[in-house]
Amino acid sequence: MGRPRGWAVAAAVGFVRACAVAAVTLLVPAVWAGAVALGIHWGAGNPWSWLLPLILVGTGTLALSGPVCRAVRFLVARWTGTDLPAGHRRPGPVGRLSTGYWWNGFSYERSRRDALLDQKWRIRWSDPATWRDLRFTAIAPFTAGLVAVLPPAGAAFAVLGLSGAGPAQRLAGVLALLLAVGSAPYAWRPVEPVAVRFLRPSPAMALADRVGELTAQRADVTVAQAAEIRRIERNLHDGAQARLVGLGLSLATAERLMDTDPEGARALMRDARTGAAASLAELRELVRGISPPVLSERGLADAIRALALDVALPVDVDVDAESGGVGGFPRLEAPVESAVYFGVAELLTNVVKHAGASHARVALAAGRDGSGAVAEVRDDGGGGAGFEAGGGLDGLRRRLAVFDGTLEVTSPPGGPTRVRMTVPCAFS
Amino acid sequence: MRVLVAEDLYLLRDGLVRLIEAYGHEVVATAATGPETLDALRTWRPDVSVIDVRMPPTHRDEGLRAALDARAEVPGLPVLILSQHVERLYARELLADGSGGVGYLLKESVFEAEQFVDALERVAGGGTALDPAVIARLLSAGSPARGLERLTEREHTVLALMAEGLSNQAIGRRLFLSEGAIGKYTTSLFGKLGITDDQDGNRRVRAVLAYLEKT
């Protein structure tokens, strides 16, 4: 692509973008201008001439500030990749009490509809994000909007001037055209810094978000743990405990029969022995699911090596030798080790079940600051892995989030798939 | 035989000592921690030791480490590891030096007292005794090691029984074949795994090791 042609493309794209920015940011001032025009049109004698425009300006600004800010966020994210979180407060649950009234977190209402409506307005008024959006709506037209309007305005004047009769008009038209073309590639750009400056959540809002996130995670963890404990309890109750009762019974009966029927007693003893072996096998499976013995005995690297040996396809395990520690890897806090181990186990299970791979590779390294861990599982399978809501990868991501860990998946159709888990360190 | 028993739980240690003595062997020493075990192995050089994997002070893999350290000093010192769970990784580490005299069994294998003492005697004689559970997990993992994919199904079966520690005669009895036929199978599978002439006992260990290895 030649330089002039590249520049022409940039100018054309810039022109369209500038028009979009101008349209979005100048929407609210357009409403204001309309209201003022209405007031002038009705004249000073009419009491409505100032009241109605005032109402129009107020409601118009309030109603449009949300959509305008959403549009700006969308355009900035799309053009520059800068992600601006909105950070609006989310409404809490609305529930009916035994008295028949509805509680929405603020007040009691007679009906669900009233409760929701009341909640909506209270949240809207008390949410700092609403006021921040309003402020941006007022600032944007006089900053980004003014600059972005240059190319379209220049183009309009050029059309007017060039179609005019006199040489002075034509000269003005040519100048306007030059201005429009010259500013086209750049005029939309100020919208990004302005949006970053005025649309970012404030520290207080970021903090409130973090608290919300942590609350949700805590709920997740608590529920998961309670379920896990119930599973263990049920397994013990129905498995090993029941078998031990049976064992005691067999032995008691055998003791009774010792003198009268030694042959029967011997058979019962044999039963008791097989029962004991079976309950041991059950307990072993249960223990493996709670915390794999190799993990407690040897730590993460060897546990993952042992895991790789049990997978139904060849798995290479690379442990970053720089990490040091036993088995070439430092011991981490138990919860982190456990999270990474079960994460790798789940990923390898996925590889066997879904990928159709012939070979997988696990790479394990300590975190940069010597705490935490990075584990990467690669396979040469068909690809196409992704985060379905409620799917395995999504669950894994949520479990890692508890440690501020992340899960990155690259899995183009046709493979290869690469899943990277990062757990910085626990409980920071 | 002179036997060492290393196990931290008194009840189990006592039970093992009784069992071994009931079969007419002598328990020369007992140990309850990793360091004690290593000392006892060095001091007594027992004909065979029964060692628990997890022991004080750290409750990690003290017993296994003591066994590996002792075998590094005294190659082929017979040890039989007892554990609540079996890991292929540990089996591989124990067999890695290729000198045999290694056992790795689940704790409940002592319920079958006869077979347990049998395994103990085999290990003392320089053979191997791997728990069928290790073998079962190998078979279910279904990813063959280098050379293993060239084995016929029958050779696979023979190799699995060999890994459990059975002699050709015992394998023959298990498969209703003559000892000579089993000999043919073992020779052919040694060839396929590229394991050549040295003493048969060590060849068996190396075949089992090949079986435990995964590419």
From TrEMBL, chain A:
Transmembrane segments: 7-28, 48-69, 139-162
Any Pfam family the entry gives: HisKA_3
CDD domains: HATPase_UhpB-NarQ-NarX-like
InterPro entries: HATPase_C_sf (IPR036890), HATPase_dom (IPR003594), Sensor_HK_TwoCompSys (IPR050482), Sig_transdc_His_kin_sub3_dim/P (IPR011712)
Span of domain Signal transduction histidine kinase subgroup 3 dimerisation and phosphoacceptor: 230-295
GO cellular component terms listed in the entry, alphabetical order: membrane
Keywords: ATP-binding, Kinase, Membrane, Nucleotide-binding, Phosphoprotein, Transferase, Transmembrane, Transmembrane helix, Two-component regulatory system
Residue span(s) of domain Histidine kinase/HSP90-like ATPase: 343-424
A GO molecular-function annotation: protein dimerization activity
Catalysis: reaction(s): ATP + protein L-histidine = ADP + protein N-phospho-L-histidine
Enzyme Commission numbers on file: 2.7.13.3
PANTHER family: NITRATE/NITRITE SENSOR PROTEIN NARX-RELATED, NITRATE_NITRITE SENSOR PROTEIN NARQ
Protein name in UniProt: histidine kinase
From TrEMBL, chain B:
Species this chain originates from: Streptomyces laurentii
Pfam families named among the record's database cross-references: GerE, Response_reg
Residues of the HTH luxR-type domain: 144-209
InterPro entries according to UniProt: CheY-like_superfamily (IPR011006), NreC/VraR/RcsB-like_REC (IPR058245), Sig_transdc_resp-reg_C-effctor (IPR016032), Sig_transdc_resp-reg_receiver (IPR001789), Tscrpt_reg_LuxR_C (IPR000792), WalR-like (IPR039420)
GO biological process, one term: regulation of DNA-templated transcription
Statement: the UniProt record of this protein carries the keyword Magnesium: no
Protein name: Two-component system response regulator
Chain ranges of the Response regulatory domain: 2-122
Keyword Transcription: yes
Residues with PTM 4-aspartylphosphate: D52
Keywords carried by this UniProt record: DNA-binding, Phosphoprotein, Transcription, Transcription regulation
Record GO terms (molecular function): DNA binding
Lineage: Bacteria, Bacillati, Actinomycetota, Actinomycetes, Kitasatosporales
